[in-house]
Amino acid sequence: MKLDIANMKYQDSRKFLISAITPRPIAWVSTIGENGVFNLAPFSFFCPVSSNPPMLGFNANSNRDGTKKDTLRNIEFAKEYVINVVNEELGQQMNQSSQEYPPDVSEFKEVGLTPIKADRVKAPLVAEAPVSMECRLTQILEFGKERKSYFIIGELLMAHVKDELWVNGQVDQTKLRSIARMGGEWFCRTRDVFELKRPYPYP
Ligand SMILES: Cc1cc2nc3c(=O)[nH]c(=O)nc-3n(C[C@H](O)[C@H](O)[C@H](O)COP(=O)(O)O)c2cc1C
């Protein structure tokens, strides 16, 4: 099977990307709007983009009507945000927070989560999240024409990890229980972890 991705409609090439590149970690992004309302939404086109300095990137497509998503507009305004990690317990609320609520409605209230004050940024942390990362915007890359994609890159300033998850200087992979997005409406758990020893000294 060959797929002529360059000549495919947006919806079809997107389906390919979403189902071929799996599992994808989920950036659960909390922001604050110009109106002071806390916003929260999940984004699975998400990755670390630099180790030194530590930087993270995620993608926000434009809405179906071509307008920018609240997350992007809030980040353009505040230049700061928090990326929260989603574990098994938070899966339903994460999914619910992807609803297109109006900008004056806070997903925190709608899905029953607790916003708490961050140390370095104005956007709130999700108190229930196992890990939260405070970020400062560095750049936004814009792609496409009608339905644009925006790749939002930020520097990681401060991380919060639940005490019980921090073992030997790292987040314990057997305890984190993060979930990830697969194709369609499929997700996966990360319970089945295994170790491969590097063939050279690590780290
Ligand atoms: C698991 C999951 C992953 C998602 N990943 C993305 C993504 O990578 N890019 C994107 O633009 N929207 C993604 N969405 C959809 C957004 O979460 C959705 O459009 C949301 O309403 C945006 O909220 P906002 O307007 O408050 O920013 C995803 C939704 C879910 C449930």
Question: How would you briefly describe this protein structure?
Answer:
This protein is an alpha+beta fold and 203 residues long. Helices cover 17% and strands 35% of the residues. The structure holds flavin mononucleotide (FMN).
General description of the model:
The model has no long low-confidence stretch (mean pLDDT 97). This protein is of the alpha+beta class and 203 residues long. The protein contains five helices and 14 strands. The protein has one domain (22-189): Pnp Oxidase, Chain A (Roll). The radius of gyration is 17 Å and the shape is globular. Helices cover 17% and strands 35% of the residues. It has helices at 10-20, 70-78, 91-96, 107-111, 173-176, and strands at residues 24-25, 27-32, 38-43, 46-50, 55-61, 80-84, 115-116, 125-126, 131-143, 149-161, 166-167, 170-171, 179-181, 187-189. The strands form four sheets. A seven-stranded antiparallel β-sheet has the order 3-2-6-9-10-5-4, covered by helices on one side. Strands 1-13-14 form a three-stranded antiparallel β-sheet, with no helix packed on it. A two-stranded antiparallel sheet has the order 7-8. A hairpin with a 5-residue loop joins strand 9 and strand 10. It binds flavin mononucleotide. The site of flavin mononucleotide has 17 residues, from strand 3, strand 5 and helix 2. Residues 26, 39, 41-45, 59-61, 69-71, 95, 98, 100, 181 line the site of flavin mononucleotide.
